[in-house]
Design goal:
heterotetramer, A: 360 residues, five-stranded antiparallel sheet, B: 399 residues, Alpha-Beta Plaits, 3 domains, 15 helices, 35% helix, binds siroheme, binds iron/sulfur cluster
């Protein structure tokens, strides 16, 4: 195999995207004039040239077997001349030029369990992460909760009856790979106990100064244990961020009994109307209850429905709450307001209410 | 191999085959039918569901020759029970810009992965890569070799530039104010070395959105965010506005009242926009796509520094260049120069695991601008300081 | 005395006798005509104008017997040249609530000060006291004695409760939602000891405004801010609204569009307010005072912690009690109980020179609420936390 | 005098306010129904009972001689039955029941140099502080600048032609006794050089640990000088807050050459429309130029006039800037934007622009 090594190709980057663009896109690149959404899951883009591109968007669990990938490839060949793409929220999109193929494609997608929708004022797929499928850091699973939540909210994926877009996301630990920090509703896996120190392992695999430096609340101090260099954790100072665990495998926080989930609301990314906003804490703790996490599903559903019933048209969750005020959000959703909601981190003082703009 | 595989009972996971949303469990089972890694993953995951805890250990450093990034090492903590996931490393494969594929390209990728891995993937990872989900250390090099033969390469991981990503832009969107895919491809190619060989204080992500709708969430998820915009007048087709009104759009409530620049007037006949007060938020255009369009003098805003909360709290990217034209090779090269300038002080003075956004917050935006040779502009801030703690060094120097 | 006084040349200050705004230089000269302290102040001030620098030294501790507060010690750094301001201490005299006076009371005060001080005053100091501007140490006790004979007393200074102050409220304003002057008088009397004898970590200021217009700036300038409000419906006289409209008020632009609760509708005939969304900002009432009035179920919001920027940056007061009735002695006593509760943890654990607002920021509002026995309420915050760094101690305890 | 000492009265507080209220107020206390501003400086309050109270508001320099106080007392006796008050911005108000006395009172006030006005959409008196009149800490004078500014803006005091109220304030050092931090336009005395250490005095009058602790930027370290305990100041870390000087007279910052003034804009206190806001830095440095501080006067005037010409009705300075955006504020006023405007203190990161809501 020395030969292979000689021919080793590196640093070529991805294939050029043009190779994968259908002719209609090449011809109308940069010439699109407007779009319409004739039905949920179908977007038609009309070009200056008059050309029309029909996109059919189907749900994806993101975790795909190679078999399913081949199936998508086959569908693309059958309906869209072999062209397809994926979206920034991991849906799959077929790029059609022949409108008569839309219905059959949708039928076939639905028949293999991939509902069509997610466009316009809908719930699209949830951005999410690895969870128990692949990550050492996870405080909860990712795919399972997404499945349970979306099963319950499927109607909002397949229709466009909501006041505005609503983006759901999930991250299985505070690292927030799902970048849930700017989502309308975010589900976040959390630890609620300080790390347990593995005294045997620690001196072998961790650099103590790094570990000490990693802790944002200075809860970790160098110490010795059984004559060996180690660390000491002031438990009351720990807020379970797991940053120490990221730099030191001997400090696991995972805990089957006490790991759980928090729910966040009101973030957004787009600049439409209001500036991008962070999500804010709605529910500090819900238990990990596999396989279907009913507490999480019901809480998310409740928030979606209260928002749907009360928001003005085009009002994202955060915009709605800004208009009605947080006290009303808690009242309408029935979520209890607790000490945990009150910020106590770096910029906490700026989150206190410094006006009498209150509703009664 | 298949005949020797264990058959796991998965009563908990089976619950997640039910219901209308596509089931990841079905996907795993499909692969588990023939692939021992996928099969052991199924068993291990059922165990996690029972134990309510993950069964993965902290990853070690694994990779392909000469690269430091692109592979996430992973090992189960139950290797005796689930030997086929004793190694279960992820490979991050750089996606084509805009995530467009031909059926042929997809099949090529599937074939490679069937030969070397679990038969499971993510289309795509949160950063945008194609994720090949789980294989053994000894398969990495072979997979890499087949990938590059097929014209694909690995993406980033660790303290390197990560795979840039972008919205579909001009390929399929009427609002793209610059060619997102072209720029993304250009930057990806330019930074091959920096993507594959970690040499930064921490990760550095690049995302390109064609307009302020920011469909790749660049302002929240990229250290370097490029967001398209325009600086002349919004294009208006008055006829079409009237048609929207006729068809039931309440122009006043849905458009005028929600405009953050408070710069739209509608008298039932003509829609007037005071473009000098327009904030370029896209809302009016979003609601009336057939009638309105971004202006013709198009370009982008460049923002810097967003990241997830670990460990100083989440940061959104903030404006560093209020407007830049992006319509030729030269302008792309200027972006490269800017990125290089941005990286320099951070690489030199950034702490280990300090993102560029955190670095700027630590040294101060004013000082950082000086270091990279940009003039302070009021567009870079939400508002001037409210505290009187001004350093008057420049007056000092003038003495 | 007068005949022996130096005559200072004041070419710079003379410039400030010109122009239409009342001249403080004229006031000083008026006093300087007969009062040597005022005369030396004039000379000293001219010197400051020439030198572009103040000529006062850091104050020492001076005061009246048994009191720790109420006097600000002051000495010039040029005592040889300006011997009559070698001492120039200020006395803070507690104003009557609402700053109402009779001519007789004013004359009494003027007489006392002519006998003992510079003949110069501030009506009033920024905190609200009458300021007797400048005298010698040996005059303090005598001045104090005459003041108390006349029914006046000193205000606060140093680390004590400062003289509470308030807007004119029910005495002359239709919008007062509780009796600001009564509450202020009550609190001033109740806290005599705490005002006169510093025993706190730092100063503690109390200000009472009758409505959200906050005419004593309590939200920015008081550790303890009481701001009147209502919780039922705004009272509307539709006839009067129409009259305003007829007389040229553009109800839509001037009222509806500026309502932060977006809860007003005007169809040209009737003004409708969705009171459940009203933010109690006062704007609509301010613009249409003959037509609108606060509701009938009136009370106040209590806010805590504002202060100037030294040294952690300025703070505005934040809500600690979203609504409280203030219509009888009992409710006033409840306020005293609340203040006592508020002071307790701060007195015990506050650092020297740490205002209560800074203390709360340091220990966290949640912990502070626990310490003073108030339940957390969403009205107390602008928004819940955005960072995930939650302490789960309570769940820990539940185990 | 031992007798006097025995009779010593303490802790009586101020006189009860009721003693000083005119009969019309006692009778209509809490019964006021509405008010009107028939002309600048005159407010009439109408009671449920039909009673009418006329308030005439006159400018005051706040620093008053006892002679002027007696003059006010005399005017009150002549025109308002001996009743008067002062406002929270230090104006004097005469409380009349007889409307025919308004004109003569105004005439007399104007004739003694106390213009009438400050009501409604006007510039009222400037809240301010001691300055060189009385404070050791002052980086500039107070009364002199106020006089110079108000001489120039007098027309806005005597009329009500501005878009909204506009509150000006001045504080002579960062202690901000004038609480200028929430003013439409604030003038702030500033030092721009680190303290000069008086090595002889320091060990005698200052407690070194207190001094070290007082510095927010940790610029001060304990050291010795000439064998005596002292402190050392890392000058690049100092931002001239003078907190060390407050606790230690041996660390003066006052400097005739380099002390000066900064200008702040856009703060407000009322809850009307928008929530209370802090003022923000507009001009980092202007020189101390007594007796009339022309640079300060012209800058303030310019800001007032640009605001007056551009703001919508009822729009305070801060509200106006929020609508048009800061870049436009700098463009319209011609004020240069510099590094100093960019926050670098505790919450600096939150002041960066995290959206593309820009105007061009
Ligand atoms: C395909 C995709 C871009 C891509 O290259 O993959 C895309 C495509 C379009 N977006 Fe988007 N957006 C896509 C992710 C996003 C994201 C990112 C995200 O969700 O993580 C955002 C920011 C979301 C946020 O603010 O949190 C986003 C915010 C928007 C908005 C602004 C919505 C708002 O009012 O806040 C619009 C305008 C609209 O829909 O009116 C928009 C509009 C559109 C249009 C109509 C643009 C066009 O003319 O073609 C496209 C169809 C929208 C639809 O689904 O109804 N797109 N769009 C992404 C589809 C994701 C999916 O599968 O659902
Ligand atoms: C695979 C992926 C999640 C997914 O399911 O999609 C992922 C997975 C991991 N991320 Fe991530 N991150 C992934 C996108 C993100 C994103 C989203 C994004 O890029 O848009 C974020 C938030 C944005 C950001 O960069 O801040 C993200 C923020 C983090 C962080 C926190 C970094 C920070 O500065 O705040 C960590 C912790 C770290 O770096 O030590 C982290 C660390 C990790 C590690 C490597 C765990 C670790 O501590 O070593 C995870 C490996 C999981 C595994 O076993 O496979 N991951 N990570 C995503 C990469 C796929 C791809 O290449 O396409
Ligand atoms: C006289 C007065 C200014 C005036 O001209 O009106 C004043 C004068 C002084 N103030 Fe003040 N403050 C005065 C109202 C204020 C206010 C405004 C208010 O109360 O509404 C503030 C801002 C609000 C606040 O309390 O935060 C104020 C914030 C300060 C500070 C900063 C305190 C802080 O926590 O940020 C200091 C510094 C200190 O306490 O060491 C200070 C310190 C001082 C000292 C005692 C100087 C010192 O460091 O020792 C000044 C004495 C001046 C002198 O020689 O007469 N003064 N001071 C005001 C009191 C008159 C009265 O009793 O009516
Ligand atoms: C007399 C006084 C209270 C006192 O007990 O001394 C007072 C009296 C009135 N205020 Fe005030 N305000 C007084 C200081 C304030 C302050 C405090 C300050 O300036 O330091 C504020 C907060 C200013 C701020 O936000 O920075 C204040 C914010 C208001 C507002 C809200 C204005 C706004 O739109 O933001 C109103 C409503 C209005 O005028 O429409 C108001 C309205 C009123 C009314 C109309 C109330 C009434 O019905 O009687 C009174 C006559 C106002 C006028 O001058 O036009 N008053 N008012 C104070 C006069 C000060 C002066 O001599 O000029
Ligand atoms: S969010 Fe945390 S647990 Fe989930 S994939 Fe990212 S690092 Fe792993
Ligand atoms: S989990 Fe976070 S807060 Fe707790 S000890 Fe580790 S680093 Fe510190
Ligand atoms: S970011 Fe703008 S240009 Fe890109 S896909 Fe979204 S709407 Fe179109
Ligand atoms: S893009 Fe936004 S700010 Fe500009 S006119 Fe349209 S709605 Fe208004
Ligand atoms: S605060 Fe309200 S009640 Fe008091 S004087 Fe001002 S407007 Fe009237
Ligand atoms: S008081 Fe303010 S919030 Fe309430 S209705 Fe009037 S304008 Fe709107
Ligand atoms: S602001 Fe500063 S200088 Fe002016 S009176 Fe207050 S403490 Fe003294
Ligand atoms: S002036 Fe302020 S920053 Fe400078 S040394 Fe003194 S306390 Fe520190």
């Amino acid at each position: 195999m020395a030969e292979t090594a000689q021919k080793r190709i590196t640093d070529i980057g991805p294939p050029h995207y043009e190779k994968f663009l259908p002719p209609i896109i090449k011809e109308n690149y940069g010439k699109w004039k407007y779009h319409e959404i004739p039905r949920p899951g179908v977007i038609v883009h009309i070009s200056e040239t008059g050309a029309k591109l029909y996109t059919v968007r189907a749900a994806s669990p993101r975790l795909l077997s190679t078999a399913k990938i081949r199936k998508f490839a086959q569908l693309a060949e059958k309906y869209s001349d072999g062209y397809l793409r994926f979206t920034s929220r991991h849906n799959v999109e077929f790029l059609l030029t022949d409108p008569s193929k839309i219905d059959p494609l949708i039928q076939e997608l639905e028949s293999i369990g991939h509902p069509v929708g997610g466009t316009g004022n809908a719930i699209s797929s949830m951005v999410h992460t690895q969870g128990w499928i692949h990550c050492h850091s996870a405080a909860t699973d990712a795919s399972g909760i997404v499945k349970a939540v979306m099963d319950e909210l499927i109607d909002y994926f397949k229709t466009m009856k909501l006041p505005a877009k609503i983006r759901l996301a999930l991250a299985c630990c505070l690292n927030m790979c799902g970048a849930v920090h700017c989502s309308d509703i975010a589900i976040l896996g959390i630890h609620t106990r300080p790390p347990k120190i593995n005294y045997d392992l620690l001196p072998k695999v961790c650099e103590i100064p790094n570990v000490v430096a990693s802790c944002p609340t200075a809860a970790i101090r160098p110490s010795t244990y059984d004559g060996k260099p180690s660390v000491e954790i002031e438990e009351e100072k720990c807020m379970y961020c797991a940053n120490c665990y990221t730099v030191c495998p001997a400090l696991p926080l995972n805990n089957a009994q006490t790991d759980g989930i928090s729910i966040w609301v009101g973030g957004k990314v787009s600049n439409a109307r209001t500036e991008p906003m962070f999500s804010k804490l709605a529910v500090p703790y819900l238990p990990n209850n596999p396989p279907r996490w009913p507490e999480v599903v019901q809480t998310v559903k409740k928030i979606v429905e209260v928002w749907a019933a009360n928001a003005h048209k085009h009002e994202r969750v955060g915009e709605w709450i800004e208009r009605i005020g947080w006290p009303k959000f808690f009242k309408l959703t029935g979520i209890e307001f607790t000490k945990q909601h009150i910020d106590d981190f770096k910029h906490a003082g700026l989150t206190y209410k410094t006006s009498v703009h209150l509703t009664y | 191999m298949a005949e020797q595989m264990k058959k796991y009972e998965t009563p908990l996971l089976d619950e997640l085959e039910k219901g209308p949303w596509p089931s990841f469990v079905k996907e795993i089972k499909t692969a588990a039918d023939w692939n021992p890694m996928a099969n052991d993953l199924l068993g291990l995951l059922e165990r996690s569901y029972r134990d309510k805890i993950g069964h993965w250990k902290h990853g070690g450093i694994v990779g392909v020759m000469g690269y430091g990034g692109g592979v996430i090492g992973r090992y189960t903590d139950l290797p005796d029970e689930f030997p086929n996931v004793s190694h279960f490393h992820t490979m991050r494969v750089n996606q084509p810009a805009g995530w467009f594929y031909t059926s042929e390209a997809l099949r090529t990728l599937a074939d490679i992965w069937d030969r070397h891995g679990s038969g499971l993937t993510n289309f795509h990872g949160s950063t945008g890569d194609i994720i090949f989900l789980g294989t053994r250390t000894e398969e990495l090099e072979a997979t890499f070799s087949e990938l590059t033969q097929a014209g694909f390469d690995l993406g980033g991981s660790g303290s390197d530039i990560r795979t840039p990503s972008c919205c579909c832009g001009m390929a399929r969107c009427e609002w793209a104010c610059y060619d997102t895919m072209k720029l993304t491809y250009f930057l990806t190619q330019h930074y091959q070395d920096e993507i594959h060989r970690p040499a930064l204080p921490y990760k550095f992500k690049i995302k390109c959105s064609g307009c302020p709708n920011d469909c790749v969430a660049s302002i929240a998820r990229a250290d370097f965010s490029v967001i398209g915009t325009w600086r002349d007048e919004i294009q208006i087709d008055q006829e079409m506005v009237r048609e929207y009104a006729k068809n039931g759009v309440d122009i006043v409530k849905e458009v005028v009242a929600l405009c953050p620049g408070r710069c739209i007037d509608w008298d039932g006949e003509t829609l007037k926009i005071d473009d000098s007060s327009c904030r370029h938020c896209m809302h009016c255009i979003n609601v009336l796509p057939k009638a309105l369009a971004p202006g013709k003098d198009r370009g982008a805003v460049i923002l810097l520094g967003s990241k997830a909360p670990i460990v100083e709290g989440a940061i959104l990217s903030s404006v560093i260049v209020p407007f830049v034209k992006l319509d030729d090779e030269d302008s792309f090269n200027d972006i490269v120069e800017l990125i290089d300038a941005i990286l320099e002080p951070w690489v030199e003075e950034g702490k280990n695991r300090e993102r560029v956004g955190e670095f700027i917050q630590r040294v101060g935006l004013g000082n950082y601008l000086e270091a990279i040779g940009l003039d302070p502009q009021p567009e870079m801030i939400r508002h001037p300081r409210t505290n009187p703690y001004v350093f008057y060094e420049n007056y000092l120097e003038e003495e």
